[in-house]
Amino acid sequence: MVKETLIIGAVLVTGALLASRQLSAPRADIPPLNTPAWQGEAPKYGEQLLLRRDAQADAVLLLKHSAHEGAYRYDGSTRYLTSVTDQEWIRAGGTVAECGKQFPPPPQVLRINTQPHRLMAGQRDIPTAGPTVLALTESPSHRYVAVVSASGAAKPSPLPFLGVATEGQRFHQLVSLPDAAVLGRAIRIPVKRSEDVLAACWSPDEKAIVYYDTVFTYVSVVEL
Fold first, then answer.
1. Which of 30, 54, 61, 197 has the lowest CB atom count within 10 Å?
2. pTM of the complete model
3. In terms of Cα–Cα distance, which of 145, 77, 139, 132 is closest to 102?
4. Is residue 56 located within the same domain as residue 121?
5. Are 115 and 121 in contact (CB under 8 A)?
């Protein structure tokens, strides 16, 4: 009887812990979309994500990994991601955005103060949804910056060259330039693992931002 009671107690405690973890897990306003065709090996130097809009369908965005055949088609009307051929990528015909060539704005315009990780415009502190600012990505027109912040504290990354690691909820926000004004509301973006580092890429028409983990296992699309 004692043994059975202990077993039941352990099961109840385990269930409570699991329920607590589920309740405390970060939520997201947009779904993570798996990219299985890009998985299986570590990214190599020079590999990058490429984006192009379908010239015949404004809601369709094509995503391509520079080192893999084929591509993915994102339909903004359904938020679904489907695999397509290289011919579909070529047929889309829109301008190509090279994500590896999108960078933060000049530090004199907007920067991250690393101790602590706050967003600064000159000497002005810009409020963000998360207290820890992780990354800035300037739009092709240099009119906007995508800002990623987190609710957790910054910590050493297992791959420092990929960016700052943290835990907790990740947030996307949009900041205009040159006035450094925060536009609209913060959007919660998903991560699958607490140690994931996210990168941002603007579509060529600046109507969408694709967030992707830096080992290319999933993406999320924020439509503007």
1. 30
2. 0.83
3. 139
4. no
5. no
pLDDT in tens, 123-178: 999 999 999 999 999 999 999 999 999 998 877 655 544 456 677 899 999 999 99
Q: What H or E segment, with its residue span, contains residue 82?
A: strand 80-84
- Retrieve residue 126's tokens: 């810009």
Distances (CA, A) of 104 to 32, 45, 145, 200: 24, 19, 8, 10
CA 93 to chain centre: 25
Cα–Cα distance between 224 and 58 in angstroms, integer?
13
Rounded distance, CA 171 to CA 88, Å? 32
Domain that holds residue 89: 33-98
Q: Which two tokens stand for residue 92?
A: 């889309």
Give 197-214 pLDDT, tens digit per residue. 899 999 999 999 999 998
Boundary of a domain, candidates 71, 98, 125 = 98
The domain tally of the chain equals 2
Judge if 131 and 148 occupy the same domain: yes
β 170-176/181-189 pair status: antiparallel
CA distances from 7 to 12, 17, 19, 20, 160 (A): 9, 15, 18, 20, 44
